[in-house]
Write a structure and sequence with these properties.
By secondary structure, this protein is α/β, with parallel strands linked by helices. The protein has 14 helices and nine strands. Bound molecules: iron/sulfur cluster (2 copies).
C-alpha cells in the first residue's frame, strides 16, 4: 500500500498555513479571508502537527520539508516558537510569505533558525505587479530580495500566471536572472477564493502551450535559465516529451511525475484542517482528531483521487502516469476533481 503511494519522490512536502492574517490585497488570492476568518494556529496544535509529520516521515522512511506560509507567517504572534520547534526536529524549512515584514530583524531570525529559502511573489514588471499587489509593492519586493540575499537566504520567486500578466513572464525570468535570483517558479491562477472573480482571465490552452514551449526553449538555449526555472506544472511533460527531452515509456504503469495529490504532499490550514493541496479545498481530516499519517493513508477522498484511471479525460493519454494535469484546476472550473484540466491542449484536440 505504502509503495503504491510514495513512488516517485522520496521527499514529502508539507505546506502549512499557520495563519490567515495578511496585509496583502492581491486580486487573485486563492485565500478568501472573508470566508476563512482571521485565524492563527495555536501552539498546542502546532506542536502536534510537527510531531505528526516526524512520525509520518519515519513510517514512510522519507525526508521532509515544511513550507511555512499563511496569509503572512510573520503576522502569526508565535512564529519564532513554531520555527524553533520545527528546527529542533531537524526538518528543513522554507517560508512562503509577503514582503511587508521582511526587515533586517526578521531576516536575521530566519537565518538563526537555519532557514535558507524564502518565497516572494513577482507577478509582472513594476506597473503590472503593482496593479496586482498594490502600489510600491514591486520596489518593496526587490528590497526584500536584497535583504534575504545578504543573509544567504535564497529568494525563490513565484509568478501567478493569468491573461493580465502572461505577456511579462519571460521578462520577469530575465529580471530574476539579472538580479542573481536562483529560483523561479510559476503557477497558473486558479479561479478559487478571490481569484474566482478572475475566471475570465484564465489563459487559453493554445496560449498556455506557447508559454510552456517558450520557457522550455529558453532553458535549452541558456543553461543558466535551466537551473533557474522550475518546471513543476504537470503540463510541461507533453512539451518535454515532444521535444525528446524526457523519455516516456508507454508500458509504464507507475506514477512517475506530475500532480502530487495523494502522493508526496499535504497542506494544513490554521485550525488543523488537512487538504490534499492548497488549491483543492476538500477537507480530508483534522490533526486535532487524528494523526497526519492516518489522514494521509486512510482518507477516503485521497484514496479515490489516487485511482488515476478515474480521470476520464486523461485515461487514454500516453502521459497519464507522468502528468494528469492540475486536478485543482479541474475542480475549480468544473466542480469535478476528475474533470478536464481546462488548459490542456491535448484534451482539447489542439
Ligand atoms: S490529457 Fe491529461 S495526462 Fe494527457 S497531457 Fe493532458 S492533462 Fe496531461
Ligand atoms: S492539484 Fe494542481 S496545484 Fe495541486 S498538486 Fe496537483 S498540479 Fe499541483
Amino acid at each position: 500500500m505504502k509503495d503504491n503511494i510514495i513512488q516517485h519522490n522520496r521527499r514529502f512536502n508539507l505546506q502549512w498555513h499557520i495563519t490567515h492574517r495578511c496585509k496583502g490585497t492581491c486580486w487573485h488570492c486563492y485565500n478568501d479571508i472573508s470566508v476563512t476568518g482571521c485565524l492563527d494556529c495555536d501552539l498546542i496544535t502546532a506542536r502536534k502537527i510537527v510531531d505528526d509529520f516526524v512520525d509520518l516521515l519515519s513510517r514512510f522512511d522519507m525526508d521532509g520539508k515544511i513550507h511555512v506560509t499563511g496569509g503572512d507567517p510573520f503576522l502569526h504572534p508565535h512564529l519564532a516558537s513554531i520555527l524553533e520547534y520545527i528546527a529542533s526536529n531537524n526538518i528543513e524549512i522554507s517560508i512562503m510569505g509577503n514582503v511587508t515584514e521582511v526587515n533586517n530583524q526578521n531576516v536575521q531570525m530566519l537565518h538563526d533558525f537555519g532557514i535558507n529559502e524564502y518565497q516572494v511573489s513577482i507577478d509582472g514588471m513594476q506597473s503590472t505587479h503593482d496593479a496586482i499587489r498594490g502600489k510600491g509593492n514591486f520596489e518593496m519586493t526587490m528590497q526584500a530580495i536584497e535583504k534575504l540575499k545578504a543573509q544567504n537566504i535564497i529568494p525563490a520567486v513565484m509568478f501567478t500566471l493569468h491573461r493580465l500578466n502572461q505577456h511579462e513572464i519571460i521578462k520577469v525570468i530575465g529580471l530574476c536572472n539579472n538580479n542573481g535570483i536562483k529560483s523561479f517558479n510559476f503557477s497558473r491562477m486558479i479561479p478559487l477564493g478571490k481569484g474566482k472573480k478572475l475566471s475570465q482571465a484564465m489563459i487559453s490552452p493554445l496560449r498556455y502551450k506557447d508559454i510552456l514551449t517558450n520557457i522550455v526553449d529558453l532553458t535549452e538555449e541558456n543553461r543558466e535559465y535551466c537551473n533557474l526555472i522550475g518546471k513543476k506544472d504537470p503540463l510541461f511533460i507533453p512539451i518535454l516529451a515532444e521535444k525528446k527531452l524526457i523519455q516516456i515509456n508507454p508500458e509504464n504503469r507507475k506514477i512517475c511525475s506530475g500532480c502530487y495529490l495523494g502522493i508526496n504532499g499535504l497542506t494544513i490550514l490554521p485550525k488543523g484542517e488537512v487538504v490534499p493541496c492548497r488549491r483543492l479545498p476538500l477537507i480530508i481530516g483534522n490533526v486535532n482528531t487524528t494523526t497526519l499519517y492516518n489522514i494521509f493513508l486512510n482518507s477516503k477522498t485521497l484514496n479515490t483521487i489516487r485511482n488515476i484511471k478515474k480521470i476520464v479525460p486523461c485515461k487514454k493519454c500516453i502521459y497519464l502516469y507522468y502528468c494528469r494535469g492540475c486536478r485543482a484546476m479541474a475542480y475549480a472550473v468544473h466542480g469535478d476533481v476528475f474533470g478536464i484540466d481546462p488548459q490542456c491542449w491535448l484534451q482539447r484536440g489542439i
